[in-house]
Every structure is written in C-alpha cells, then in structure tokens.
C-alpha cells in the first residue's frame, strides 16, 4: 500500500488501528517528498528533524493511551506567509528571506494542539500577490499534472504538495482566489472560509478586509475535518467573529434533495473556456440527478468584481506593506546615508515587480485627489456586490460556477501581462469582496488538466457547501490522478 | 486615463520606491494599463450607496481592559533586527 495516497480520515483509521506509527507515517511522506520535490518544488523549507521528533511524541502519547487531537500524527504543509515559531517565514520575498517568526499564528497553534505535524513551508507568489507562483522570489512551483504548467497561485506550493501526494493536507490563504484557483488547477479541494471564521493572527497581511486562511485537501470529508480544528474565535484578531462552534462533519452526508442551486449567467458567459463550461454543464446534470433544483440567475454587479478587487486589495496592501522598511526585521541594504534612503533602497531591492506594482496602484488610488474616485468608489461597488449575494441567498441555498475561466496555463504564458494574469481570478474575487465562503472541488478533466467547480454559500454556511460538495464528489467519483509521480 | 511618467515618479516617492530610467518605461506602461482597467468602475451608478469597509457590518470595536500581560520576549524579537545596539534597534541619525 502506498501510504502517501491515503486521505486524512483513512490515515487516521490506520493510526487508530495501530497498523502504523506516526513516525513511520511522517517518514513515509518525507520519502515521497524527497522523490518528487526536485520536479515539483512545492516547498521553500522542510523541517524533517522536528517533524519526526513531534511524531515520536504523538506515538508515545498513543502508547500511554492519552487523549489525542483530531489530527494526531497527520503531516501538514504551511503556506510561507503564515507565521510558524522558530521557522523561517519568508512570504516568498527577498525582503524577508532571513526572517524567523518569533510566534505561531493562531491556526498553527490550533493545528499543533490537534496533533498535526508541520513538515515544511510552501512556495507562493511574493506576499500572496499572483496567480501562478511565478512571482515567488525563489522559484516557480510546477503543476503535478503537467510540469510545463503553473500550479496556480498564490497558494501554488500548498496545492501542488497535496496534489503530488507530498502531504495529505496543507494551508493556503486567499485574498481574491488564492486557495480555490490553485486547488482547481491542481485537482484538489480548496476552501475559502467566511471572512472572520478563522483567525488571521499570524497571517502576514496582504489586504486585511479580504484575507482568509483556508485548507487544501484531497477530499471534502478531509476539508470538514480540518475546518473543525481551524475555525476558532480569537481575541488576538479583532475581526474574528464569535460564532457557535460547529462540527463540519455532522451534516456532511445528508442528501441534497430539493436543494436550490443558482448558476449566475455572468459566470458562464464569454471568456469562459468551452471545455470548462461543458464540465460545469455536466456537473449541473449531476446535481439534478441528486435531486437538486438548478436555475440560471444573475449577479448583476459581478462584472465589476475584478475592478473593485484591483482597487481595494492594492490599497490595503500599500498600507500593510509599509511595515517592510528594513528597520525592525527583514533585510536592510548595506549602503545608505539617511533614513529616507534606507527605506527606499531596502524596499526597492527587497520587493519584486508585482509587489511594487500593487503598492504603487494602492498608493495612487489612496492619494489625495484620487481617493474618492477610486478607493471610495470601489467600497460602494463592494456594497452592491455584497447585496447581489444577499439577494441571491434569499432564493438559493448555494451558487455554483466554474472556479477559473480555463485550466492551468503554461509557465511564462502570462507573466509579462499583469492584466491577463489578473483575469484568471475573475470568478473568485467577488466572493472575497463580499466575505462569503466558497469551495473548489474537481469536476472533471479537460485535455489532461483538472477543472474546478466552485460552490459558494452564504456567510457562515460552510456546513451547507461542504454537504453539497460531498454529495457531488461521491456521485462523480473523480479518480483521475496527476500524471507525474506514477501514482495510478 | 493614461498615467504619465511624472505621476508614476511621484507615486513612487510616496511609496518609498525607486526605479531606474530603464525599467521606468515598462513599469509606467503596465501601471497605466491597470489604472485604465479599474477606471471602468466610474460608470457604475453608486448614488446613495454606502461604502462597505468590512464584510460583516455587525462587527463593532473590540475593547479590552488595559492589563499587563506577558508578551513576546525582547531577545527573540531582536534576533530579527538588521542592526541593533544595547537592546535598541539602530537606524541612521534622523535629526541634525
């Protein structure tokens, strides 16, 4: 049996039956990583020694019959913009390439308490700004389905690691689609939770009113299991919302007869690749067979989602990234004559082109004379986008659409044209702008590459979208695996 | 609306960034194309629409008592400082 192919719930069964130890399990995954990493390059850092130590501790606890957490002994990979105490947290940027996080993010604390074993930190577009990992200052991660193609981004390393069986699950973060888009490109499950459901404490901020951490897993049940550990109210994040603790696995397997599904016509129009659209149409038939009612509907302001996003996200980023100035942490240039020069030179050398572009767009949109025309205007359109969703959820339980307009593109294909790159997020950004949750799950293959189906729910209705996704997954029985790695 | 090189230089100064002449041309072109793109929002009618600064309007200011609690260790924090002396972070002279 190839252990690395198993899901969290299967691995947990093996561990509980004492068929294998956590130490064996972790070593098995490290073997897999060592076999595949040269080609995939998911990771920026691996922490084998500590991971094995932690696994041994879990085994001791198991031997003594102590209570173990939900994820005891299960390996996990963490996107490198989430703070992990004692480990480098670079955000894929030169400016932080020596930064060691002095504390754990709250989600990391939750994972450790549940017994998960952190194996390493994954690659990303610098400061999560990008859709392909090509903006990483260190290297580009490759798509396990086709090494010539991107894994998506910005959580591309986290998606590729799960897809190539290097880990059973990983954490990513989403500001405009950075969990769902790479999940779709790599054929795995990725959830962007409701804004405020997970603590952002310790996530290096990109756009504070849009950012959410989210899990990437191999199946929907695993996603529900991991969400049970991740979701928590946190006093250290004042935007974290106090909601009743939910067991996301509880309603997972209920049938969805009579469920009302909306399909926004704006998400199925021109600009969506023909094969992708066909897969979504096939998915709609599956939902009908499951007893759901599917109807075309409209989210009229969604055509302005991307423009709104590309004002709001850079505006917030320009403010958040002001902290990287070479004073308290991060790199500092060697030669400077004044504080002013220290700031400017450090930032100009430390940031890559896309990060500079977004800081500049944000600064421009917030600058005197332009603030009302751009930033304030975008916040008003945001209200309209949010109201579109609220009205839709009066009538529909969930909304479905493709996750991305096309499947994974070739490395180098779009990285000289920022607008073309931005368009790969056109179907995911509005969800972040409105703060609602959405999941991407595989729904088929087009020309050898996986296609993602997006299921959007109303705020804090993760249980519902997981339930809908689970039913779909069981019916579809998606069992294609990436070409790379010889896993058949 | 196209953005001039002079405007880009001004925004760069505000952002504490600098570009050499060679990369300025290309950067201005790409920057301009993004600003042109987001300009499309101007045609949306937002009269009487309130801005949404935060996804959940129900969120209120979160207050707490001002109590002394244990914080991160100074020694740990200072490990990340690029330059320091006697437990202080060091920067060039600000005032003459």
List its traits:
heterodimer, A: 488 residues, alpha/beta, Amidase signature (AS) enzymes, 11-stranded mixed beta sheet, 15 helices, globular, B: 96 residues, mainly alpha, two-stranded antiparallel sheet, 3 helices, 2 strands, flat
Summarize the structure in short:
The complex is a heterodimer of chains A (488) and B (96). With 488 residues, chain A is α/β, with parallel strands linked by helices. Chain A is 38% helix and 13% strand.
Describe the secondary structure blueprint for this structure.
The complex is a heterodimer of chains A (488) and B (96).
Chain A (H helix, E strand, L loop, with lengths): L7 H9 L5 H19 L2 E4 L1 H16 L11 E5 L26 H8 L3 E6 L33 H8 L5 E6 L5 H7 L2 E4 L19 E6 L2 H11 L29 E5 L9 H16 L3 E5 L7 H16 L18 H12 L2 H14 L5 H24 L2 E5 L15 H5 L6 H6 L3 E9 L2 E8 L5 H15 L12
Parallel strand pairs in A: 2-3, 2-4, 7-8, 7-9
Antiparallel strand pairs in A: 1-3, 4-6, 5-6, 5-10, 9-11, 10-11
Helix pairs in contact in A: 2-3, 5-6, 7-15, 9-11, 9-12
Chain B lengths: L4 H10 L6 H18 L35 H5 L5 E2 L2 E2 L7
Antiparallel strand pairs in B: 1-2
Describe it for me?
- The complex is a heterodimer of chains A (488) and B (96).
- By secondary structure, chain A is of the alpha/beta class.
- Chain A has a single domain (3-262, 395-476), classed as Amidase signature (AS) domain (Amidase signature (AS) enzymes).
- Chain A has helices at residues 8-16, 22-40, 48-63, 106-113, 156-163, 180-186, 220-230, 274-289, 305-320, 339-350, 353-366, 372-395, 418-422, 429-434, 462-476, and strands at 43-46, 75-79, 117-122, 169-174, 189-192, 212-217, 260-264, 293-297, 398-402, 438-446, 449-456.
- Chain A has an eleven-stranded mixed sheet with strand order 1-3-2-4-6-5-10-11-9-7-8, with helices on both faces.
- In chain A, helix 5 (156-163) runs parallel beside helix 6 and helix 9 (305-320) crosses helix 12 (372-395).
- The mean pLDDT of chain A is 96.
- Chain B is mainly α and 96 residues long.
- Chain B has a domain at 5-43.
- Helix content of chain B is 34%, strand content 4%.
- Chain B has three helices and two strands; from the N terminus they run αααββ.
- In chain B, strands 1-2 form a two-stranded antiparallel ribbon.
- In chain B, strand 1 and strand 2 (88-89) form a beta hairpin.
- The radius of gyration of chain B is 23 Å and the shape is flat.
- Chain B starts with a helix and ends in a 7-residue tail after the last strand.
- The mean pLDDT of chain B is 90.
- At the A-B interface, helix 9, helix 10, helix 11, helix 12 and helix 13 of A face helix 1 and helix 2 of B.
């Amino acid at each position: 049996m190839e252990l690395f192919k198993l899901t969290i719930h299967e691995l947990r069964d093996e561990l509980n039956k004492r068929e294998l130890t956590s130490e064996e399990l972790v070593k098995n995954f490290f073997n897999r990583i060592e076999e595949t990493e040269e080609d995939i390059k998911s990771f920026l850092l691996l922490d084998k020694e500590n991971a094995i130590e932690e696994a041994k501790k879990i085994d001791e606890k198991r031997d003594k019959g102590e209570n173990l957490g939900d994820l005891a002994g299960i390996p996990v990979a963490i996107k490198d913009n989430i703070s992990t105490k004692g480990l480098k947290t670079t955000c894929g940027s030169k400016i932080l390439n020596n930064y060691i996080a002095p504390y754990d993010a709250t989600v990391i604390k939750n994972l450790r308490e549940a017994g998960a074993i952190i194996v390493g930190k994954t690659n990303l577009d610098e400061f999560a700004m990008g859709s392909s990992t090509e903006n990483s200052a260190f290297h580009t991660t490759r798509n396990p389905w086709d090494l010539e193609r991107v894994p998506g981004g910005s959580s591309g390393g986290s998606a590729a690691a799960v897809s190539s069986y290097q880990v059973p699950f990983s954490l990513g973060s989403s500001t405009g689609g950075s969990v769902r888009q790479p999940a779709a490109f790599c054929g795995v499950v990725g959830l962007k939770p409701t804004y405020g459901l997970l603590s952002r404490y310790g996530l290096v901020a990109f756009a504070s009113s849009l950012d959410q951490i989210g899990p990437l897993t191999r199946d929907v049940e695993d996603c529900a299991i991991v969400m049970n550990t991740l979701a928590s109210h946190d006093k250290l994040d004042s935007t974290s919302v106090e909601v009743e603790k939910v067991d996301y696995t509880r309603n997972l397997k209920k049938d969805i007869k009579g469920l009302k599904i909306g399909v926004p016509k704006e998400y199925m129009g021109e600009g969506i690749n023909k094969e992708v659209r066909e897969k979504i149409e096939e998915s709609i038939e599956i939902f009908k067979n499951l007893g759901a009612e599917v109807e075309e509907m409209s989210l009229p302001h969604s055509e302005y989602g991307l423009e709104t996003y590309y004002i709001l996200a850079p505006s917030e980023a320009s403010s958040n990234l002001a902290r990287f100035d070479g004073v308290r942490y991060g790199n500092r240039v060697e030669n400077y004559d004044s504080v002013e020069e220290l700031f400017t030179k450090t930032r100009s050398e430390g940031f890559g082109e896309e990060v500079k572009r977004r800081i500049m767009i944000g600064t421009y949109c917030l600058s005197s004379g332009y603030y009302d025309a751009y930033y304030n205007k975008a916040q008003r359109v945001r209200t309209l986008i949010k109201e579109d969703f609220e009205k839709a959820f009066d009538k529909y339980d969930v909304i479905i659409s493709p996750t991305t307009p096309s499947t994974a593109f070739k490395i180098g294909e779009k990285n000289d044209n920022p607008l073309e790159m931005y368009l790969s997020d056109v179907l995911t950004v509005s969800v972040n702008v409105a703060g609602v949750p959405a999941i991407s799950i595989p729904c088929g293959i087009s020309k050898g590459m996986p296609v993602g189906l997006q299921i959007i729910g109303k705020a804090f209705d993760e249980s519902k979208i997981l339930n809908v996704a689970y039913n779909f997954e069981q019916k579809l029985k998606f069992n294609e695996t990436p070409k790379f790695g010889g896993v058949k | 609306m196209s953005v001039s090189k002079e405007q880009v230089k001004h925004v760069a100064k505000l952002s504490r960034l600098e570009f050499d002449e060679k990369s300025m041309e290309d950067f201005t072109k790409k920057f301009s194309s993004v600003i042109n793109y987001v300009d499309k929002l101007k045609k949306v009618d937002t009269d009487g629409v309130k801005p949404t600064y935060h996804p959940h309007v129900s969120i209120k200011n979160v207050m707490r008592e001002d109590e002394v609690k244990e914080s991160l260790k100074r020694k740990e924090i200072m490990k990340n400082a690029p330059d320091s002396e006697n437990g202080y972070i060091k920067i060039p002279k600000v005032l003459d």
